[in-house]
Amino acid sequence: MSWREVVISNRCKLDYSMNYMVIRGEETKRILLDEIAVLIIENNAVSMTGCLLSALMDKKIKVIICDSRHNPEAELVPYYGAHNDSLRIKQQISWSKESKERVWTRIVKEKIRNQSVHLNMLGCIDEARLLKNYIKDIEPGDITNREGHAAKVYFNAIFGMKFSRSDDSNAINHALDYGYAIVLSAFNREVTSNGYLTQLGLEHDNQFNHFNLSCDLMEPFRILVDMEVKQMNIAGFSKEEKHSLLEMLNKPYKIQG
């Protein structure tokens, strides 16, 4: 089972040899492809052979390309993720509005429940209790937008009343967005490897979003990023903080024991 998250930060050439990724830089290193879950290319001076790219896609290894500021800019997604892609896609297209609404309602409840748990951990008891009440008020499809109301209470409680998710100049937002992008890429890998289309979502339905379904499914897991960013006490968001967030993919997490 693949488990390693590999980050390439220095200028080098990446090649393929006998099921290994060969890293040719100041030193030559080899990593077994079967161990790699995610490959992140941070340096724009990295070159990769077509043979390696094909092998990475064959192993369903998620490849993330970063821009000059080390922010995720693109990722490689294989055309075919499972042996029965056609069946899975037909099933996905035929998902009824009612079933998608039902699943989305459960996703929202779990997202808010996790936020409430985090607030309890931080000692924000009143806010945590308020979020639990929001869960009780959620209607099918969350037509009253309890998710949005909960988010405002939640972020103001953990980052202060002046904090806004729409503030593009805030280092905390930069860290959150970076972390969410990393989690999203992990979900993209799972969705495609199981034969589904990331484009066709449950609630997310943006024609310009290639990852609507992954955006739906990752919602309850945003809490993992929130917890990391809160613990980091970010004043600025540099390469070191980014690498710290990348460690999320290497950590074990328990779900219902």
Secondary-structure blueprint:
Elements: E1 4-8, E2 13-17, E3 20-24, E4 28-32, E5 36-41, E6 47-48, H1 50-58, E7 62-66, E8 72-76, H2 85-93, H3 97-121, H4 125-137, H5 146-159, H6 171-193, H7 212-218, H8 222-232, H9 239-246
Parallel strand pairs: 1-5, 2-6, 5-7
Antiparallel strand pairs: 2-3, 3-4, 7-8
Describe this structure in words.
The strands form two sheets. This protein has a four-stranded mixed sheet with strand order 1-5-7-8, covered by helices on one side. Strands 4-3-2-6 form a four-stranded mixed sheet. The protein has 257 residues and is an alpha/beta fold. The chain is globular and about 55 Å long. The chain has two domains: 4-76, Ribosomal Protein L15, Chain: K, domain 2, CATH 3.100.10.20; 85-249, Up-down Bundle (Four Helix Bundle (Hemerythrin (Met), subunit A)), CATH 1.20.120.920. The two termini are 21 Å apart. The chain has nine helices and eight strands. 28% of the residues are buried. Helix content is 46%, strand content 15%. It has helices at 50-58, 85-93, 97-121, 125-137, 146-159, 171-193, 212-218, 222-232, 239-246, and strands spanning 4-8, 13-17, 20-24, 28-32, 36-41, 47-48, 62-66, 72-76. β7 (62-66) and β8 (72-76) form a beta hairpin.
Question: Main traits of this protein?
Answer:
257 residues; alpha/beta; Ribosomal Protein L15, Chain: K, domain 2; Four Helix Bundle (Hemerythrin (Met), subunit A); 4-stranded mixed beta sheet; 46% helix; globular
